[in-house]
Amino acid sequence: MRAPAPAIKALLLFTVLTVSTSVLAGCGTETESDASGAPATSTVTPDGMTLRLERVAEGLTHPWDVGVLPDGALLISERPGRLVLADRNGGAVQEVSADLSSVHAEGEGGLLGLVVHPDFASSRLFTTCQNHQRDGAAVDVRLVTWRLSEDRRSAERVRNLLTGLPVNESGRHSGCRPTLAADGSLLVGTGDTAAEPTIPQDRGSLGGKVLRIDLRTGEGLGDNPFADSRDADERRVYSYGHRNVQGVAVRPGTGQVYASEHGPTGFDEVNRIRPGGNYGWDPSRGGSTDEYDEDVPMTDLQRFPDAVPPLWTSGASSTEAPSGAAFVSGARWESLNGALAVVALRGQKMLLFRLDDAGGDVTEVILPPEFDDRFGRLRGVRSAGGELYVTTSGGTDDAVFRVTPHSS
Q1: Strands of 398-407's sheet, edge to edge?
Q2: Which of 45, 66, 73, 134 is the one with CA 20 to 30 A from 148?
Q3: How many CA atoms lie within 13 A of 363 on its CB side?
Q4: What pTM did the predictor assign?
């Protein structure tokens, strides 16, 4: 067992910058947009609010996700195949003993997303996404439900909630981010494996999708868009034509689902998920090639005229590699209440998207500059109790930060 590392409680303050609506209209500042008109990059101006960052856990290795328990303790998944528990106020990081010997930790794969069940106070259940191996060979990506012991020192496997998500031996494009919907169903963003090019457009495959399943059984819900299909996997599909979804978030008060997604080179996306929607990624070029062609458009509106265009794209000249996504929530966030927070790996930044009240379109892009390159790659962000929890992903001495607002 790894020796626990003390958490650092130093407080770091930084200024939040905002984009005016005139900036997004292209008035007097440099912006880029794709064919959908969604802003890709923008210059920012000061807003006056400050945010407080507190390092609540450190000494981690690729922490992928954070689940906040009812008392505020943090359950953290590390990609190499470890679970740890941290106190929200800092202190020692405690390893949670669990049989994770079947985790295939390779490349982008391993122990990935995590979600705490809504009845955790009585059931002590949580569910993880993880690449699974047998005799050293990758088998699939699967969802596994666990029960945390009363003393929180161990977790026992309860069931495989869902198996058969496609996998690449290298771990590339494994996804995999689970998030609870407002109705208690489980939404899961998955990757397309970057191997078999027909997967994103194949509704009988669980890869390159946003899934919507029953948290107890793993089955598709009766009101899913393809609920009448004879194929059990197609019944689980909520949207398709995705490349590598690593962030899924539900907008409070609306039930709207948003996803952040890696593009090939540039053209990273933030999407609002439409039930049954095709998001236009097809590296098979309509089944005309057996090779994974990354030169096709991220959202191919010529091949799929009805494909859902992105709300936002990084454009051709910028690669952010957006990962986790969560909504900022709580009155103390003032004008930022309701913004969508997305963290980025290659961009090494946080992006905050203000959305309009009517349709949930992006109206402003906010770039807190102190995140830029300061903490390296950022993998996960979760919202709980009016706070954001952000994980770094450098691979050595990674950390979890708590982010809260402070009005000047």
Answers
A1: 11-18, 45-60, 398-407, 387-392, 378-384
A2: 134
A3: 13
A4: 0.89
